[in-house]
Amino acid sequence: MNLVAAHFPQSWLVAAWLVAGALLIRSAVRVPWLKLPQAEMTCWFGGIVVVLMAWQMKASLQPGLAFHLIGAAALTLIAGPDRARLGLAVALAADIYDGHGNWASLGLSWLIVAAVPTTLTWQLLRFAQNKMPLNYFTYIFVNSFAAGALSMWLVGLLTCGLLALAGVYDFGFLADEQLPYYFLMGWPEAFITGIVMTLLVVYFPQWVATFDDGLYLKDK
C-alpha cells in the first residue's frame, strides 16, 4: 500500500505523519521489551520479513492503487497490536526505500495499511473473547479468517474513499473498477491468515502472543 504523495494536499500528509508518529511512539512505549520471550521476538522479526516479501507481489492498475496481501491481521495475532504496528511501519519504510512509494505519504499509508487493520483485528479478538465461546475454532475462524477478510475490505474502502475525497478518481470509477478487486483479495487474505495461524497455534503456540492454551484448550 503505497499512496502517491502528489495526490493529496500537503495538510493531509503532515497531519497523517503527526498522527502516525504519535501512535507509533505510544506503541513503542507500551511494549514490555525487556520481558518479551525470545520465541515471540523471533516470530515477530520473521513475520515482518514475510509481510515485506508478500508486499513485493503486487499488481498496480492505477497510480496509488496497488493490490497485494496485507498480513496485518496475522502479525497482530502473532505479536499483539503494538508490535504489529511497529513491524508494519518498518516493512512500509523498507518498501518505500526500495522504490515503491513516497516518504511524504508514509504516514497516510501506514494509517490505512497498519493502524486500521491492526485495530480491527485486536477489537475483534477482544469481542470474541468476551462474547463468544472460547475455543480453538473461534480463534481460527473468527479471529483469523474473518479478521483477514475484513481487514482487506476495510483497507480497500478507506483507500478508495480517500482517493475519491481528494478528487484523484471519481468514486463511481473506484466503486466499479477497483473495489471489486479488493473484495476478491479479501478471500486469499482470509485463507492465508487462517492457514498461517492454524499452523502456528498447532505446532508453535509459544510464538503466538494472543493464543493461550489454558484459555482456548483447557477442558475442551
From TrEMBL:
Q: Which UniProt keywords apply?
A: Cell membrane, Membrane, Transmembrane, Transmembrane helix, Transport
Q: Which Pfam families match?
A: CbiM
Instruction: Respond yes or no to whether keyword Ubl conjugation is given for this record.
Output: no
User: Its membrane topology, per UniProt?
Assistant: Multi-pass membrane protein
Membrane-crossing ranges are 12-29, 41-59, 103-125, 145-169, 181-204
Q: Which residues form the signal peptide?
A: none
Q: Which residues form a coiled coil?
A: none
Protein name as annotated? Integral membrane protein
Source organism of this protein record: Silvimonas amylolytica
